[in-house]
Amino acid sequence: MLNLSSVLIMLCGVIIAAFSQILLKTSANREYTGFWKQYLNKRVIFGYLMLLVSMLFAIWAYSGMDYKYGPAIESVGMALVAILSCVILKEKMTKRRLAGTILIIAGLIVFCL
């Protein structure tokens, strides 16, 4: 059974997780003066808190839908991170990254048919 509200909750969690990955990636690209400052700074802590919220959204969403739909919806996150990396971090969309994003979306479409 596929409940629309559960799908929307799961998609919200996927979007939160994608933005947390971007936040963690920006933190990894910075230089830090000490070992602990590299892992205990605002960006890293907030990024992991966002991942925790995303996990809680996923748990909440799974209570209203079959488990087989979860991985399909979660796969959107990988494509979203690739797109956000290009838009926010100004990374290049290589042919390989574009092909991977298209394959993820095509797989989701095939799964939904």
TrEMBL record:
Query: Mainly resides where?
Result: membrane
Q: Which SUPFAM superfamilies match?
A: Multidrug resistance efflux transporter EmrE
Keywords noted in UniProt: Cell membrane, Membrane, Transmembrane, Transmembrane helix
Identify the stretch annotated as signal peptide in this record.
none
GO cellular component annotations, sorted alphabetically?
Answer: plasma membrane
Kindly give the membrane topology term recorded for this protein: Multi-pass membrane protein
Any GO MF annotation of the entry? transmembrane transporter activity
Q: Does the keyword Acyltransferase apply?
A: no
Sequence intervals crossing the membrane: 6-24, 45-63, 69-89
Q: Which domain of life is it from?
A: Bacteria
**Places the protein is found:** Cell membrane
Q: Does the keyword Hydrolase apply?
A: no
Entry protein name: EamA domain-containing protein
